[in-house]
Amino acid sequence: MERQRTAITQSTNSATLADVLERILDKGLVIAGDIKIKLVDIELLTIQIRLMIASVEKARELGMDWWATNKDFNSKLNAPQNVEELEALKRRIEILESKKQK
Question: Coiled coil where (predicted)?
Fold first, then answer.
């Protein structure tokens, strides 16, 4: 009888994959490692690996928001800053294309 209670208790206390993933994203997970290749005490190669898994909110909390300032990830940064400059460039292109056709 005691073995059945233990089995039932263990199965109800287990976490699902979704629970584990939620905890990791909420708290953050850091994996770090260094690989060094040496030959007769001369370091030939060093590889430093740093991996962080976290939610966007947690990353921002830690000061990591590179996607907000990177043009490849933020389309607002690719927008022209000066509408007048864009119009001037369009006019120059039209002039160059008209000269090319003549």
Answer: none
